[in-house]
Structure prediction request, 238 residues.
Amino acid sequence: MNVIKVSEKFDMFQDHWNPRVIGSLNGQDVKIAKVQGEFVWHNHKDEDELFYIIKGSLDIHFENDIKTLKAGEMIIVPRGVEHKPVATEECWIMLFEPRSTKHTGEVIDEKTVTQFEKI
Amino acid sequence: MNVIKVSEKFDMFQDHWNPRVIGSLNGQDVKIAKVQGEFVWHNHKDEDELFYIIKGSLDIHFENDIKTLKAGEMIIVPRGVEHKPVATEECWIMLFEPRSTKHTGEVIDEKTVTQFEKI
Prediction:
């Protein structure tokens, strides 16, 4: 049982849109990612997804809305809801979601990660 | 689907050891609490519990160890593990745990909260 220093975990990688697992509990994963630019439209059929912003700002596009999140803010995207994260500048995010959550849902994209590294 | 501004949620209460639910997903709750002083020894038989520190510093006492967490750090306490949080000065924490999690496990204490307010 170790103390997880989130900022040190962020220092361990530089690439974008490639979430790392930093903890697991109750069938859920805690992931962190650095993101910049535009992600792909997708949804998670059976999983709600929490985005918490550690640093920077993230726009999450929905079918009829855009929500802007800043550091210290979170949003829970319900299962089945189409969304597309976009970050104009580099943004650091933390995700809480079931271990079963696929990166881009049923969409396959060049950004899609199928195996999440644990750090 | 709203943006949850965590610092604004913390402004909504002042009491200690009384977690509020600020979000729910996949059968899990996201709770926040202000804590100061010493909590009660307890464990959660069937639930792993994540502590993430928003502000200040928290000592978590275990049977043979004490872990100190500072802002931006987290720990996952596995189910069944006895623990006692202690904060010398006021500390703001975020918890991620199953909705079924009882505040003080099977222990009943004057600090025990049985119904968590949603804010």
In short: Chain A is about 5% helix and 50% strand. Chain A has one domain: 6-98. The mean pLDDT of chain A is 97.
